[in-house]
Design a protein that fits this description.
about 475 residues, globular, 19 helices
Length: about 475
Amino acid sequence: MKRAAKLGPVAAIVGFLAFVEFTSGIIQGYYTPLLTDIARHLGVHDADVNWLEGSQLMLSALVVPAFAKLGDMVGHKRMLVWSTAITAVASTALAFTDVFWVFLVAWALQGFYVVWLPLEIALVWSRSRSADRPAAMTRRAAGFLVAALELGAIAGALSAGALAEALPMRVLLLVPAVAVIACFFVILFGVKESPDLTGGTLDTGGLILISLALISLTGGLSFMRLNGPGDLLSWALVALGVLLVVPFVRYELRHPDPLIDVRMFRSTTLWPVFLTAGLFGVSVLGAQAPLSTFARTDAATYGYGLGATSFQTSLLIGSYVLSLVVGAMLFPFVTRWLSPRVALIGASALVSIGYLLFLPFHDAYGQALTNLVIAGIGSGALVAALPAAAAAAAPQQQTGVATGLTNSVKTVGGAIASCVFGIALLGAAGEAATGTAGSFAGYVTVWLVCGLTAAVAAVVLAFVPKLAFSDAPEVEAAAVR
């Protein structure tokens, strides 16, 4: 009864939001085993599937800043409903077209689901703010939500594998659409709106500037991954994206109600969280495909790899995802004995250790499994903790923006890593001449970069004030001036 009372302000919505994240996991896990079948269905080459990932990546980079700000202004639930409606329409459209460009547009629009978790954390924080320990309550809720997300990803992948041979493609693609439609009604009738909304008008000038910067940056990275590092257009787009950040920052500093209060990046508690999110995106978003292809590479043919079957590889990835669940659920309990800052440092250290262990231990299936579980526990804790930490450290009127920024920065980090890793795996000329296996030096690069970026994140977090992200009165709100 005592614990139920402590959870009172958020318990009423956590169950509904967990269903939303379970649906998000279904979307993220369901399509991956079907990508080759989808390519055949659309009549395109397997390489063209990369455009699906690139288009959704660019849209997600644009959607989060706008919807996070609108959530603070007009309602986090309202924007959650709108984003889910768009995702539902897009998911349904996927099942009723075999035209590649139409499928590509629908796939990109389905990416609106990326705003769900930041908006949910903002909803939880808005309710827990009146409780005795709002930061602890938000961390606990975030752990449940991320656990639901990862369990949904497992359920989605397993469902797709089981149904692929039994259902025609149109019916097969309708399965996640049904889940998203159900999710829409769960939010509409089960979730109450956040109190204390800021109101105001959307900073359209700032939105246009940051959209141009993100489109240019992520577009350039996507083209570079497809066309190689020698493509001048790719480099020009990346450079333009970086340069466009300068007028955006100047514009936001002058605006009375900016889309993103860039002063948050000067906050002693927030800038390490944002930087950690970007560094964390390198491994959690950029390294999964290389890990999968390394597992499938035949050591007898190429001299490296695990030679795993598709089933063994799915078990490997499944174990990694389960370890994410464990990390997400353990984090709020660990913070009962350790400060959130120390727990975040420990989680980053686990990610670093897990990937660096690949350098000496990569020849056996058991070694790879052990490394991934270690990295996965730390990754699960970070997925849950970073948006919760941003919510606890942000000014009251910027909760949605702060949690959304952790997602946006993580996406940019993943996009950069995906580009770098794709180029690295091509290897030196002649090293992977057959084009069927990545360069071993490229895989070493992946492990080294993932391990070192996580280690840098742990060092960065050491500069955060000792009581950051806790419920101590002296660090409440980490106000940005």
